[in-house]
Amino acid sequence: MEQTVELKKEHQQKIKQVFTEVKKVVVGQDYMVNRLLVGLFTQGHILLEGVPGLAKTLTVNTLAEVLHLDFQRIQFTPDLLPADLIGTMIYNQQNSKFEVKKGPIFANMILADEVNRSPAKVQSALLESMQEKQVTIGETTFKLDRPFLVLATQNPVDQEGTYPLPEAQVDRFMMKVFVDYPSKDEELEIMRRMSNLSFEGNVKTVLTKEDIFSIRNEINNVNISESLERYIIELVFATRNPKNYQLVNEAEYIQFGASPRASINLNLAAKATAFFDERDYVLPEDIKEIAGDVLNHRILLNYEAEADGVKTKDIIHTILQKVPISK
Predict the structure, then answer these.
(1) What global pTM score does this model have?
(2) Domains and CATH numbers, the chain
(3) What is the pLDDT of residues 156-190, one digit of tens each?
């Protein structure tokens, strides 16, 4: 038992070291790194939304180095084919046989850059990999290496020539994280680092794959009370039936509420947040902290909300204020 406690403390210290190592290369973006780690340790994929130049690719690449995981960046374009993603069969003239050539999806961390720039066939191929953790090429099915994490990015500015992700596909992402501009001091530091042509920012490996699997088990054993489990259910149901929770104004704007995946992911993400704070039990604050990222892509607003300038985050903020914790 003591050995288990010591190992857990060691893992929690290593997670802090991960942030330290990433900071050697990336300025700021602790929030994004936190959410990426939550996704990694709870087997949840992350959708990142932010304008170009906010170090999304650099952060994911650096994190993969620190975790000693295979990393692949795939630039999604309108002419991308499913075979460019998962691989294809190639005819070998020497032995007169077809051989499998695996695509870039066969890695531990995948950065699907501007995922909404590719047509539905490519997105569906990515979806199978995310959901089933496997790829089918020809008549053969290949299991993907574990851990497997998809980090997809969307550019909210230039929407011309894009294929909006279907709601069912967006729902497969554990969280949708909005990446914001750096502060003035952070941007000053970014400018100084990137203006130094000799800057390398070498990082060292902190966690191994075995550590990642152990941390997953430790997070799974974090306690969450029945009252907080019911609180999660109430939050999700408030997005579906807002009038039942005295959310009269919000009811006019919500077209569809969150799916059961929201309940599952709120539970998992809250446990991970508690673990990062070196606790073996979940607090209401853990649920509230993570709720925005888990719910903001699962609540579909109508045209009236767009006309009145109401955002999903406003709805979630009101729900968190008005829905009481079950006793």
Answers:
(1) 0.88
(2) 2-196+206-210 (3.40.50.300), 222-322 (1.10.8.80)
(3) 665 555 667 777 778 889 999 988 888 888 889 88
